[in-house]
Every structure is written in structure tokens, then in C-alpha cells.
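User
Here is a favour to ask of a fellow structure person. I am asking you to supply a protein in sequence and C-alpha cell form. Please set it down just below, with no commentary around it:

Assistant
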Amino acid sequence: MAYDQALAERVQKTIAGQTGWVAKEMFGGIGFMLHGNMACGVINDNLIVHVGPDKHESSLNEPNTRVFDMTGRPMRGWVVIDPPWLILESDLHTWVKRGINFTNTLPLK
């Protein structure tokens, strides 16, 4: 399974200049780790974002979002944002920032 490298590059540009980031290829996609915790990633041509359990339901009420489920077991606190919602840089930035905001609440690894 390949991932959209152009989308991954856009995510990297969004987080450029911030400390504590590592990009790691995994599960056929790429994850963006902040201080050891994954904040967001790209799988196929979708963005996945770790919004946390408190923002899970409200995030799913937004356009072009769905539950993140790779194995038949939905991952609560994670959402998938489908490509139509990622055309504008401002939309991509908003979603990446949500992942950063939640990940910053987690203990460092």
C-alpha cells in the first residue's frame, strides 16, 4: 500500500520549523510523531489525525471525515480526512494543528 507523497510533503511543510518531530514510515503509510507520539499521518491519499477521545465525535460531524479503521476495530480518537477536504492549505493546517494540540497533552515518550 503506497501513500500520497505529495500530501506527506505538504504535512511536512506545515510542521516545518517545530521541534520534536519525526516522520516514520509504518503500516504502508507515514506517521508524523511529536515527541514520540503520533499526531497525524498519511495512508493512501488520506490524512489521519489523532484528535483524542473528547474531540472524536465532533470531528466526525465535519465534512469528508470518517472513523479510522484499518483492522475492523475502529480507533477511537482518530479520524480520517478524505482528499476533497485537503485541497486548501488552510484546511490541511487546521487538521494538522488539531493533531498537534491533542498530542501535546500526552506524556513524552
In short: The mean pLDDT is 94. Helices lie at 5-15, 56-60, 89-103. DSSP finds three helices and six strands in the chain. Residues 30 and 42 are 5 Å apart (CA to CA).
